[in-house]
Amino acid sequence: MRKSHPIRRVVLATAATVSGVVLLLSLKPASDPAAAAAAGAAPQPGAAARPSPQGGQRGGAAAGTVTGDAAQTQYGAVQVRLTVANGKITGAEAVQAPKGGVSDQKTALAVPRLNQEAVAAGNADIDAVSGATYTSTGYKKSLQSALDKIKASSPGSGGETGAGSGSSGGSGSSGDSGAARARTVTGRTAQTQYGPVQVRITVSGGRITRAEAVQAPEGGVSGQKTTLAVPRLNQEAVAAGNADIDAVSGATYTSTGYKKSLQSALDQAGG
Amino acid sequence: MTTVETGRAAPAGPRTARRSPAGPLLAVLWAGAAGSVALWWTGTGSVVGAAGWLTGAGRIAGLLCGYACAVLVGLMARVPLLEARVGSDRVARWHAMAGRYTICLLLAHVAFVLAGYAAQDRASLWHETVTVVLHYPDMLKATAGTVMLVAVGVTSARAARRRTSYEFWYYVHLLTYAAVFLAFFHQLALGDQFNGRPVATALWYALYLGVAALVVWFRILAPVRLNRRHRLRVDSVHQEAPGVYSVVVRGRHLDELGARPGQFFRWRFLGEGLRWTSTPYSLSAPPRPDLLRITVKALGDHSAAVPLLRPGTRVWAEGPYGSLTADRATSHRSLLIAAGVGITPLRALFETLPGEVTLLYRARGAEDLALGGELEAIARWRGARVLYALNGPRGQRPEITAESLRAAFPDLAGHDVYICGPHGFAQDVYRALRAARVPDRRIHHESFEL
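YS: structure for the whole thing
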């Protein structure tokens, strides 16, 4: 029967809830201690074996990175860096790409695909990603310039890596090369609440070119989460080149196990 | 002072009111909310970046929402402790207040979690929503539950209630059970705080299963048992005043019900036009081992059919509910203030409240005084006073103000005051009493305005 003050009550409830939640969130550490430690301690597998492009002691057979010229697009610059091992492109990444708003989304959408295509094709004749035409065009330009640099720096193996010689660009021919050929490393099994996670990576020229989970939680909800999370984690691992990858929301345990096993694989590859 | 005949009046009860369990109960409910937040706190390592903040806020909202859903259902489980000790009206107000808050939490949970996931995956909100709903485990069910809960919230808003029938609101509200059930599974499947934490999971199960047990017991089994045992049937219907009818209900072993003057039952008459609605009516006389009596004003589409009830019609009753009883009294002197058909519970109290009792009865005219003869008889027998506040000859309403009350009752502040009448009337009287320095704890009232 006491007089009620609905407006006051709404304001109070809202203020109390919002400030309570903000307080709780701000009291938690702002960085993930486990991930930070992993990233810091990780012996970057590429770091030791990544000399400057021209400084390769063993000429064309050594792994190296080449950065193409920045290509301007309407939405910003695109610049591609290639990792080359034994005259083959083993990794591609964009060191610059359009940023901000919709561009962020388009970059997120297009660049991983373009990277994959570049490695697969071994030349700049790759498909544009629909919806990100400008980024794609810039990417191809910068990619071409990087390929040109490789050609110029290693005349001996130029024919093999040449921008135009598509047929030899497949991944099959890397098997017969020497020290820098692709090798597969399997990480230790990481136990999670729902089952073991084990990651196998393919390292080539000091870079992860492939990541897959040979073991992951199965059955029921766990199976659904595995299907959901593992492909994304694989992609992230290749893109990041280290174990500092984002967990997939809704599959935190699998993600944590995955990162652990990935780290152990990287340790083995680095050591 | 009063000569209380032994046998008819209630024995003189303790002079200190029985403490309402409302305070401790609220403390327990709030502790539960704190516990839900603690689940998040202990299960969360760090909050990284905007995505972490959004997801974290969404998870806290989700945990609180899940907890509140269980509490909301529990409050409406018709637990005797809540209905008869805290008071049905108060519990209903808690339920309404917490319900509005829960809908807000629900919307915040959905918005923040989706925004957080989208930020983490660098995907659009729309894309993330589709992914979460279609591909995450148990999310289709949870989405259906969310839609139902929002529908329940919308149909319960004051603006919507005014435009829809009671029955529509009631049947939509029943969806709550389905909605809470459907939304339950995603909490355990996706809730990070339950993943691999058997204790937290067990507590959550205990909360939900406990509430489910309360609902099954008190809303289903207890009424079935009551009606099988007591076999209630309409005995007779009398007119008390224009449009006001008393219904006498006969049954067996009614003393076992433990019904007390001032309480009410929810009645469902299994006759034409009344079968589908159960309506709360107060007992208008102290219960007898074989008879109960209610007095009803025939105004709504439902109560209009009451005068047509035929003797022998079966009755389904649930109760007793309500806390407007002698337990609330804190002194020897009571003032009962009734308006219109609000006389019903006070008529029962007038006969049975121990101590010195005075009744103030507000009605339009003398012909509208329901139960008038009985009141006079009780007054004579108890040596109690009945005062009437009727409209004047030209229809002017008598003023019930602090001054007029003090003039009639010099020791007003020493009285327990029971009020029953339309909401506006009760509010006016409450204000007048407070102005006359009657302490809040001595003013007893049941209001079903939410």
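YS: worth flagging: The domain at 231-321 of chain B is CATH 2.40.30.10 (Elongation Factor Tu (Ef-tu); domain 3).
IM: good catch. Also The two ends of chain B are 40 Å apart (CA to CA).
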